[in-house]
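>> received
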Amino acid sequence: MQHQIAQIRTEIEAARLLVYNAARMKEDGLPFVREAAKAKLFASQVATNTTSKCVEWLGGVGFTKEFPVEKYYSDCKIGTIYGTSNIQLNTIAKLIDLELKNKQKKMDYNRELLL
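>> returned
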């Protein structure tokens, strides 16, 4: 169980750093949409994984209203059910595609200059 707790703690720290990085980029006036989408996607995945593990650790009582983990688990699953994760993945994919197209244009331009 120690390894599972260590893994979850590491994932939570990583999610927090992704969120902080996106916030820093926004404050600095830099493009931040891709980083924000990555942070939202990863943080929601970590939240779902974490609450799922907590329910497992509590056993059958993890699904009872006596423990707040039941509500946390339900709240986390809503993102998957309503497609929030898919929306973030679409945003990330579109921005990666745009970035690659821009790099290709720069490479083509530089190649023309050399000719």
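>> The chain has a mean pLDDT of 89.
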